[in-house]
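Reproducibility note. Readers wishing to regenerate the assembly model reported in the main text can use the exact inputs given here. Chain order matters: entities are listed in the order in which they were concatenated for prediction.
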Amino acid sequence: MTDTSPDLPAPGKSSKSLLPDHDRRQALRRKRMRRDKMSRWGITAAGYGVVLALATIFIYLFYEVAPILRGAAVTPQDSYTIPDTGAQTVQLLLDRYEELGIQYTDRGEAVFFNANTGVESQRFAMPVPAGARVTSFGSAETISNTAAFGFSNGEAIVARHDFQITFPNDIRRINPQMTYPLGEAPIVIDEQGSALRLIAVENMQRGAGGTAVAAVTEDGRLLLANITTRTNLLSGAVQVNRSVNTLPAVPGRAQKLLLDKSLDNLFVLDDRGQVHYYDISTPAQARLVQSVDVGGGSRVTAAEFLVGAVSIVFGTEQGELSQWFLVRDAQNQYGLEEVRQFNSHGAAITSIAPEYTRKGFVVVDAAGQLGIHYATSARTLFLESVAERPLQQVAISQINTGLLWLNDQGQVVSADLWNEHPQLSWDALWNKVWYEGRADPEYIWQSSSGSDEFESKFSLMPLTVGTLKAAFYAMLFAMPLAIAGAIYTAYFMTPKLRGVVKPSIEIMEALPTVILGFLAGLWLAPFVEDHLPAIFSFFVLMPLMMLLFAYVWGRLPGAIRNRVPDGWEAALMVPLILLFGTVCIQLSPWVEIWFFDGSMRQWFTDIGITYDQRNALIVGIAMGFAVIPTIFSIAEDAVFTVPRHLTQGSLALGATRWQTVMGVVLPTASPGIFSAVMMGFGRAVGETMIVLMATGNSPVVNFNIFEGMRTLSANIAVELPETAVGSSHFRVLFLAALVLLALTFVVNTIAEIIRQRLRQRYSNL
Amino acid sequence: MRQWFKSGTPWIWLNGGAVAMCMIMVIGLIGLIAVRGFSHFWPADVAVVEITSPGGEQTTIMGELVRSQVISAAVARDSGETVPDDIDLVTRHLFKLGNRDQTGRDFVWYLELGMSPWQYPDDVFVIERREWGNFYGQPLALLREGNVVSTPGDADFWPQLQDAVDRSLALFREIRRLERGEIGRINTGIERLRLDERNLELNPPPADVEARERARIAEATARFEADYAVLREELDAIYQSTRRDTLRMQTADGTEVDITLATIVRVTAPNAMSVFDKLVQYVERLWEFLTDEPREANTEGGIFPAIFGTVVMVMVMSIIVTPFGILAAIYLREYARQGTMTRIIRISVYNLAGVPSIVYGVFGLGFFVYFLGGNIDQLFYEASLPAPTFGTPGLFWASLTLALLTLPIVIVSTEEGLARIPSTIRQGSLALGATKSETLWKVIVPLATPAMMTGLILAIARAAGEVAPLMLVGVVKLAPTLPVDGTFPYIHLERKIMHLGFHIYDVGFQSPNVEAARPLVYATALVLVMLIVILNLTAISIRNHLRERYRSAGD
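Running the prediction on these inputs yields the following structure tokens for the assembly.
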């Protein structure tokens, strides 16, 4: 308060008033008021700021997770007439930069045009043999840019478009090109010279490589040509070797051929909605394996492989869409099975365009609707009418941000597309998903892999189960020790001992978990592995030993017993536990020799139990250790603050000390103990370093105590630094963080509210 | 017996047993770390053992005993050892053999079967090297430029050797000074010039200014390059000079190995040392551990950068968290209207203390690093893009994330302190005519200072031990530079740092040679535990002291 007392004149020196004059007092008062206000505003602002900063955590996590839930958005941009209106468009494509569109026509031409204006930029004509005409078209997987034209003389040509990108003056220029990987000369597919009515082509990149062309001739024969090429290094000439086999006849009139990338399987779709599956792994002995009705009784109007050429999507004239792939059964036989269905379009499907790098596809139908679906998550992200007229063709760009569609009058519409996270949905995250190449739907977390064709598998179930498993075993270890310890410390222990015990256990809470994790992983895990019998016998027999000791102690002559007053039982237990522990460890190898053929770990493996060195048992002990102080400290407070008059009343009525604990203390303190357990659980759920270091971090779904797990938190720590910002993986990890945040926040809030209630109740008692 | 069970006594004993278990675990854990950590620095004797294999072959090994184990014969047989059928249990010993460059096998288990009595010859040398770890062997001669100057038989062999080692160490320090200091300065200068040049391209000033700038940059670059050429020559000369001395050694199997002194850290003969010598050696090594930089992918050498990084990070964090935590607590306790809303906020803030730390890390990485950092880079560090300055994990973001993480701790503790101050004191001040802010700043806050201190200390202890969020927002396994140094602006908030806790995780779990790293991990853990226990004990004693003080004030 120095402000209010400016230099006072020495008393007695002046006859004037000792107080400052009116104006100065006013000024001073104003100054003080100003300061008061400033302080108020400053503190309030800081208070709000801090609350806001903490709220930002929630808001930001939501903000990062929210795009997962959004569907796709399609914004039509330009509309124009397709460059070549005279011919039928057999395929429409869009390049990676969404600058050029490609129209393959039934006259054997590829027309490149500006995707925004429709102005033709370049046109390539296939080298059609003299006197022949184009009779069929088939495209390989779109990312390979390869297509085949079949001619009326039984020959075919394989063409590949390419984009040469140059940067003259730092401006991107894309020059389309057309190459013929098997040479410019058409290849004879049908020696008999019959027209090729249907054709399919595919390249095999792996192994020996090579190209296969499947075709159906006008007279209904199914042919398979396997073609390999060798380029002469000196002349540059391409030498083509081909072998053509006639496959067993198609039972029905073939409509479309689908050849997979391993060149092992051929699917022939007929006009009654049946698919005939041929095993062509040895072309000379190709056989028809299976005929399946994929249309559900109606005609299938469109069929396309998804990227990777494993799954096929069929669209029927009713507008139904379904995904099928080969599944291996118990006899090791492959068969085509329906995996999932998508939202129906309600009108005949006319064209399906698979995405280039993901398992999604775009569909147009005869009613002018555009649908965007995603296979793995079974999500329909977009299904709206975009045109008055029936649509014929659709194209999607390689980076999934642009679309082109074509109606039956030759009108093309280009559109922008936002479709970032189609593979995530509630189902995909929490339910079993049937992935390609698996026999059954499963929970899998596998976020990355070495290969490009790999599909990330984001099931949060293995991580959530792992989190709960770790927390469960930790609580199993911690709860009895912490609660029993708390009751004893608060109610039975002498104050002198309590003054040592309580701070020690509280300091334990501050121990960095990285130290616990490192000890668990580097010291405890190998120790437990080497001394398995000791660990089990210790946990099982220790309580019995304690009881035995207590009994014997009770029988000892009073002279010895009275030396140790009540409340020191715990101190007596220390040597007992140490002694018994040592005995267990010393006997451990002998027990192994007597009962387990020398090694208990090996014995586990022999009887079919998987044993990992870093397992749930280790995590349970280490994390239990981290959780004990949390539970202990809160539970001890709850028991200790039970009003004295209650316990004294009980004792006065003749109850023993233990009866008082069970009948009076515990019922009163139970909400506090419950809240302690909740807090401990919250801590166990979010703990990162211990599980990271003391488990193998394998995302398995089981509760085996001898296997590891991967928890949500450890998963974040492992994967977040390595993921691409803004990707689906990134957002799933944020979702995992949000789940953790919400979970612990709710658990802690409940615990806190219970505790506050309890405090009120005590003050009323 | 039934009576005894009915009385409840056994249950009391069981409860007591639980407490005893907890205490044993706490003390055992700290004891384990202390024993393993402290023993790391003790110069262990080097044993020479002859082993006769069941086939009759003889091998001689030389190394330090790491630990011994009793295993059942079945396990030994499984791992490919030959054990006679009449033996049930065998003892095996893990030896640190060193000489990684010679044999490639650093740590090897040997069964006790067939071992001759262990010998500890006085002339066994342990050579700590900067590369390839320790070397164990017996000396043959000291060479200078290829000529023998001294042999172990000479009386002055040991002093000569020590002189040579000291000389090479001095040269090494000189090299490091030149490389880190002088050449580092030149590099920083050239990098700054490059940024200036890029800035000119991004925001071209008037032509004459630009020409002048360009001339200046060209001239400065030329000067730096000239400086560098001189230094390079100097360095080459020193490098040449370090290769002068070589020590010729003999390994356990009789191979002669020439070790150039340029790579040597220390030569000791532990078997010949007295307890006092070992004690001196112990202190020396402990000091080196605390003050030196790590070597050999962090598995050897010291942990100074990790200690320094932890301390700097915690300090920056304290500077951020203290004012905000305290002001927020004052607001909640003194200014906010105590209603449902305040209660909800309070419970929320308290609960944030229980939110998993990794969540803060995720938030820090997404919001601070990518969002804030990315924008800062766009605004202020355009010249150095696309290399991020603040748009990448670093010291500042690590501190800020931890500040957020520890904010609830400071708030809770400060609020507790404020709540403890008897209202009579507050009313007294107001009754004397003081305004609210005067009461607050001159009466309440000084009284609550110890509580704030407690909160801060607890926050520091928490922050020092936290690893999970730091892995995401700025801690790395090896930082090339310290966050504080002699070049402007002295504190480099954007730099990545090393951290004790992360060091433990990294060395213990990510290093290729876990066995070699193990003692170092224990020692690092010991440093961290001591730091945290001391901080916590301080906080507890302040809190207890505080309670006493108010108990009397409240009466």
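We highlight two features of this model. Chain B is about 60% helix and 15% strand. The two ends of chain B are 52 Å apart (CA to CA).
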